[in-house]
Amino acid sequence: GAQEMLNNVYKMQNEELITVVDAAIVSWPKDRKTPKTKQAVNLTGAGALDGVFWGMLFGLLFFTPGFGLTVGAAMGALSGHFADYGIDDVFIKRVRSEVEPGSSALFLMTTNAVVDRVVEELRELDFELVSTNLSKEQDEALRQVFGV
Fold first, then answer.
1. Burial of 144 by CB count in 10 Å (0-12 exposed, 13-18 middle, 19+ buried)?
2. Angstrom distance (rounded) from CA 99 to CA 112
3. In this structure, are residues 1 and 104 in contact, taking their beta carbons and an 8 Å threshold?
4. CA 119 to CA 129: how far, in whole Å?
5. DSSP 8-state class, residue 94
6. Residue 99 neighbours by CB distance under 10 Å
7. What are the percentages of helix, strand and coil residues in the chain, rounded to 5?
């Protein structure tokens, strides 16, 4: 599942096809109301974002307080904030329709991806790719807010 895919991505990072800044795995057992989220630890990426970013993103995507972060009334303002980084309503709706009970997902924040090679490498795994590309400016703004 998602862990196997993450291992493949690490392998590609060694081949310099992609640079993983940060990653998180979402798994949604069929018998649970909400998915479980876990930030991938031990990433060498110096630019890894703090858990607050993932907590807010997953709160926005799944209405769950992830990573011990409760997201309530700030939701509207928050979604406007994420839209600045290419995480817009279209992206959110796609993720909500793809990630449902009984499935899992791998969220990656990457740079320097050789996209066609990466897609080719992951093709034999059964997955749906939902992506958003940040411009250099968006990336820097995101780091200013959530960087560690």
1. exposed
2. 26
3. yes
4. 8
5. H
6. 21
7. 45, 15, 40
Indicate the pLDDT class of residue 31, thresholds 50, 70 and 90: very high
- Name the strands in the sheet holding 103-111, side by side, starting at the edge strand that comes first in the sequence: 36-39, 19-28, 103-111
pLDDT in tens, 89-124: 788 888 888 888 988 888 887 777 777 787 777 777
Beta strands per DSSP E along the chain: 19-28, 36-39, 103-111
What is the rounded distance in angstroms from the CA atom of residue 99 to the CA atom of residue 26?
8
* Six token digits for residue 132: 């958003």
* 3-state secondary structure at position 60: helix
